[in-house]
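User: Good morning. I'm curious how MU-OXO-diiron would be positioned relative to this chain. Could you predict the structure with it bound?
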Amino acid sequence: MTMRLIKDGVYAVGVIDWNEKHFHGYTYITKRGVTYNSYLIIDEKVTLIDTVHKDFEEELLKNIKEIVEPSKVDAIIINHVEPDHSGAFPKIIKACPNAKVYGTEKAKQGLLKYYGICGDWISVKLGQSLNIGKRTLDFIDVPMIHWPDSMFTYSAYDKILFSNDGFGQHYATNKVFDNEVNFNILMEEAQKYYANILWPFNNLIYTKLKIISNLKPNVELIAPSHGLVWCKHIKEIMQKYLYWSSHSCKNRIAVIYETMWNSTEKMARKIIEGITSENVEAVLFDVTKNDRTDIISYMLDAKGWIFGSSTHDSEMLPVIAGFLYFLKGSKAKGRKSFAFGSYGWSGEAVKNIETTISNITSFDSSLKVIFKPTEGELNKCFEAGQIFALKIKNENNKTL
Ligand code: FEO
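Assistant: Good morning! Here's the predicted structure, ligand included:
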């Protein structure tokens, strides 16, 4: 997103981080970069919504200065305190000494802990609003979308929902609106973002979507703090959020494995052949060769998950072990799985896969092969894939 007027009196003043490829430490691979969006509303009270990452504080200040003297900013709204949105706050509050600062009580605590300052603070919550002239800004606290402090801000005058992390995409672009970019790429990034950031909060999101769809007048723009502003495709993204947050799935299967001497890989390939013979969509992921971010995104609405690992020192292999620990945090529901793998003498990997993620998926009986699979054992892998695909097909799934 680049600096631009998005509605009469409302400017996008955020920044583009073209080179950010690892977000949240190393948890999210952002191949298309990142934007940190911030919005400036020119009304009787000049209002800034969110700041940006600390690395871009000078750029944000410069963008604000192109529109108004920072000393004229009357209000700063902190929708969320995570450093990608609040890192520039200390610099901005210094440059805007006349601003009152609005956010949830938890955001105030967060700012004080991170930076030791919170400015001239006013705590707000759902049902409270701020009149800034022609506009009244309504605050909607949405704890856990994405942190306990998170909130959205709605301008009924503009029909804009400032949704911070909600409805975001990690997509660096000099475009501003959803209809200026390729729709499929946009939705791919929106799904990746949901799967890797918001998935654990499905139940809360599902509840809060009702509040958003009941906003009056109806929302015309959703302006997140990452990626593009939704204008043309609001209906599509709302439907997707409803679908994802209700734990809905498609008849698709992810086969994820890590192999040592290719025996587990041979098993994986036969399993996917069996699945394919039943015309069920499936993708094979060697976890050491694919981005975890992409695999998680595919798994978000995949009904079936199959995991394989060779056994090494009585454990599963290390990359898939890390992957499963990450996946465990998703708090997914309603999935079906089975585990497989080759081994040399004891074969604990399969059992350990099941134990690690038994809280988020149910396991069918597993497949283990000593050393190298024989023809007969490979046939068994094929059959296991077939049987699993039939189970997935026959489940009564919610699909979009
Ligand atoms: Fe984009 Fe939760 O920060």
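The mean pLDDT is 96. Residues 80, 82, 84-85, 146-147, 165, 225-226 surround MU-OXO-diiron (CB under 6 Å).
Let me know if you'd like a different ligand tried.
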